Amino acid sequence: MKVVKKTDEYVIFAKRNQRHAVKSIASGKLINGDDKAKILLEAGLIQPPKVKQPVAEAPAEEAAEAAE
To answer: pTM higher than 0.70 for the full model?
Structure first.
C-alpha cells in the first residue's frame, strides 16, 4: 500500500485495487464505515453520492383519470 496523505490523526493509503485504507495513528487500527467515508471526502479522494430527483407522479395520475 502506498501512503497518499498523512496527518496528525490518521494516514490514508492507496491499495492496489484502487481503494483506500485509513489508519488511525493514535490507536494503530484501521478506520471503517461512515468515519472512513467522511475522512476521504474531506481529503477529496472520493466524490459524494449524487442525490436522485424524485419521480414526478402527475402524468401517472392524469393517465388514470383519462382511463376512467
So the answer is: no
